[in-house]
């Protein structure tokens, strides 16, 4: 198993060389800077505002802002995971980088899982760090803290881990460009599922609600995102909760007890498929 | 009896409607250097890739030192240089070898790396990044990479295509040294003169089949006797055994003989006969 850290480190150095981390770090700094400034200004502008009875302005602003920050964090984590894996197999094989490595006595499954491990750890750590940074900026700007911290952070991180596995699976059969497009289309499908859920919530449409729910479970990084979104305002009740449902929290459902089991099984299935497809692939 | 370094039996590979290999038998003995020849698309690279476990055969079998091609045991015994390969540009020559030492589990350390770089004439470039190397230097680094872990079988796919004459000579000498150490080498090359110089045997593929195989000398045919006299140079039919008789006849006829050469076909002639003048 000595090959696993070797391959993972090799893949991360390759990403460093391609300046993936530089681009993501620059985007992250821009995002956090703008987010901190925007949060400060927004809290400042709502200081003198008297909200309707039963609604907490700080909670409404803080949760809405942080909910949007979670989306951005999810997106940036996805960019990182996709760009570190999109050409891992077919792309690298076409460039002649893969063959010298996989003829070594390490096994294709070990190679693939090492690539997954390296990219997943980086993606997951990145998401948790940006989540905590955005949370700190929100607290600094308006004194608002989410109702839950650990679970939503881990759920966002696990969502990115699932996207990493999907990107690796795609990299076995698709060229790097096609794979990048495919994974971002999946990400977009999750976004659409969230929007449908919001509309379903606003119109009280059972059909839209079902479509959104089925879609988010079919691509469970979206179900995890919705669950995480829900958890940051888990203890918020009354009119504030109702007001929040009109914003990005509309349709954000708790996944329930089956969600962790389903996501783990889903991840195992995707990785199993990737390993099987890679084992059969001629290089 | 020890298993052959490479044993290929009835090997076939089909890509949809195209047969890249169509029932190839081939054996590479211990310490043997075999040249694999054929026009582009003959199936040479496919055969090598199957032996490495990069491509799955449609039928037949390939074994490396008795282990099925592609198995961990087989991979442990072989070194491979692909026709089209690339090392990460950010790696130095030394780092490339470190990576492959880790993947093969070689305990050779810095000494093995230095020896390999010296073997391919890159000792002075050990700290140079791949991006800053010429194509020829990268190819020599590729040969060194294939030798990491002291493989018993070496599969080289066009290892000298980007090398200048000096680089080719370095690789040729290296191959001869490896043969001396008992390493078996399958050399896939278009450079017939090079193959003729170093290989014990050659196998010529055409359309996925073996069309000629044997020692270069055995494959060569007599092409007559070239005789240089005062009247000029002429070629007459005959073999080495006919030379004394011909010389006696010429002397009896009062002709002065300045030179006699028994002509045999070159590997190039054998190759062109075998492939029927087919190119890429």
Report on the structure:
The complex is a heterodimer of chains A (283) and B (280). Chain A is an all-alpha fold. Chain A has one domain. Chain A has twelve helices and no strands. In chain A, α1 crosses α6 (108-142). The longest helix of chain A has 35 residues, at 108-142. The radius of gyration of chain A is 20 Å and the shape is elongated. Chain B has 280 residues and is α/β, with parallel strands linked by helices. Chain B has two domains: 6-215, Rossmann fold (3-Layer(aba) Sandwich), CATH 3.40.50.300; 222-264, no CATH class. Chain B has ten helices and 13 strands. Chain B has helices at residues 44-52, 72-77, 93-104, 109-119, 135-146, 165-180, 192-198, 216-219, 243-252, 267-275, and strands at 6-15, 18-28, 33-37, 59-64, 67-68, 78-81, 153-157, 184-188, 201-206, 209-214, 222-229, 232-236, 257-264. In chain B, the strands form three sheets. A six-stranded mixed β-sheet of chain B has the order 6-7-8-3-9-10, sandwiched between helices. Chain B has a four-stranded antiparallel β-sheet with strand order 2-1-4-5. Chain B has a three-stranded antiparallel β-sheet with strand order 12-11-13, with helices on one face. In chain B, β9 (201-206) and β10 (209-214) form a beta hairpin. In chain B, α3 packs across α4 (109-119). Chain B is globular and about 75 Å long. The interface between A and B is medium-sized, with 24 and 29 residues.
Summary?
The complex is a heterodimer of chains A (283) and B (280). By secondary structure, chain A is mainly α.
The count of strands of chain B amounts to 13
Coarse structural class of chain B: alpha/beta
Mean pLDDT across the residues of chain A is 88
Compute the average pLDDT of chain B: 90
Q: Helical content of chain B, roughly?
A: 25-40%
Second-tier CATH architecture of the largest domain in chain B: 3-Layer(aba) Sandwich
- Bulk shape of chain B: globular
Tally of strands of chain A: 0
Binned strand content of chain A: under 5%
What order do the helices and strands of chain A follow? HHHHHHHHHHHH
Contiguous low-pLDDT stretches of chain A (5 residues minimum) are none
Q: Which strand order does the major sheet of chain B show?
A: 6-7-8-3-9-10
CATH fold label of the largest domain in chain B? Rossmann fold
> What is the 3D form of chain A?
elongated
